[in-house]
Design a protein that fits this description.
Blueprint: H1 3-20, H2 23-29, H3 46-60, E1 65-74, E2 77-85
Antiparallel strand pairs: 1-2
Helix pairs in contact: 1-2
């Protein structure tokens, strides 16, 4: 498996964990030095904050359906294009 395929798999696993509220997998797949530049009000920084944000989103949008439309991976970068629907 190439480094791009490995990175894509990790990012998709992380994204799906965030979306589903799977905190164990989310913690496992978030880099220890992760910096979120779009914090929610009161959100903790780093991995703990990511887990906190996941819980907030799941509570607000329990019926959310997120579809990954496309992934692009090059070297150590991965981009996801997605769409979502929720009430």
């Amino acid at each position: 498996m190439s480094i791009e395929e490995t990175n894509r798999a990790i990012v998709l696993r992380n994204f799906r964990a965030f979306d589903s509220g799977d905190l164990r997998t989310l913690e496992e797949t978030t880099a220890p030095g992760f910096v979120d530049h779009n914090l929610l009000e009161g959100q903790l920084p780093g991995v703990r904050g990511t887990m906190q944000a996941s819980q907030v989103y799941r509570a607000a949008f329990p019926d959310a359906k997120i579809v990954v439309e496309e992934t692009i991976a090059e070297a150590d970068k991965v981009v996801i294009r997605r769409s979502g629907h929720a009430t």
